[in-house]
Amino acid sequence: MDGTHLPLIGEETHLRADAVRNRARLLEAAARLAAERGAAAITMETVAAEAGVGKGTVSRRFGDRNGLLQALLDHSEQRFQEAFLSGPPPLGPEADPATRLRAFGPALLHHERANLDLYLAAEPAAERRFAVPPRRLRHTHVAMLVRALLPDADAELLAHALLSSVEVVLVDHLVRDHGMPLARVEAGWHDLVDRLLG
Amino acid sequence: MDGTHLPLIGEETHLRADAVRNRARLLEAAARLAAERGAAAITMETVAAEAGVGKGTVSRRFGDRNGLLQALLDHSEQRFQEAFLSGPPPLGPEADPATRLRAFGPALLHHERANLDLYLAAEPAAERRFAVPPRRLRHTHVAMLVRALLPDADAELLAHALLSSVEVVLVDHLVRDHGMPLARVEAGWHDLVDRLLG
Fold it and tell me: Are A192 and B156 in contact (CB under 8 A)?
């Protein structure tokens, strides 16, 4: 009895590990497409082609395009969080707080631009906007850096002011409606940080 | 023929002027109620009682409560705009730019708090959020002050950062979800302005 089960258990474990790797590979392919050609370029077909698998494999993992986009946002958000919480300098903990704060704005801008369609589609209602977990985590992080740099400031409020200045909906308005180059928004973050740090 | 019409025209003019006065009186009464007891206290009945007229008069002017609230927001917005564009100091043009900028945040906060329910109910969709006329006018005004005070700064972006720091949805989150006193948000505006002006 045990003998007949062991190979099956082994097979199942093998399949699961394979499924996890497969999923990660598909999400990496989708993230590459989003970064290079924008989220609009993400379809079940383009992700399958980019990952070198059949379209059926993508469908089995994510259901439809919306399922894929949601999974991609979670995945991308997690990598961004890892980068500023525990990644290498200038974002991560080995750099000094001023360097980390200066680097955070452009990193957030690029993360948001790479996932623009996802963020705009997932924009929460007004009463939830500041309570969603990624926003709270960013705020905690920026407030921690501000507290280290400006002990006499109201770090909580300054962190909100900083984050709001590169908020995805505002930046989209500036870029789309006013044709503002993203480099100018990045320079604006550095200017704001430098003026605050005096 | 002319003789029979003249009195009617006179009567009509008289009625119109009366209607305008009536409308203004009802809106002033509603604004007082909102400032003293919050927008939730505004009903057709309370406004009628505050203005010393019958409920039918309020219904004839505004239709229903929603019509009244929309008219009130327009009315209140216009008074706020007059205050910072052409009103007395510290908001208006007779004060120096630094004084006007310092005063603008608390004035905006109080204006938004007095109309909180209206603003939350009227919160535009993401793609329209920064394009609505009152927001644009505030931005033009703050950018003009920043330009006068910090000629080397990116006034357009700094104005967005400043305005976002006292944005109605953020402030509502801070006050409602975190129990932050409004006085602290006001102090945060002054702190932010003072740090930027150096």
Answer: no
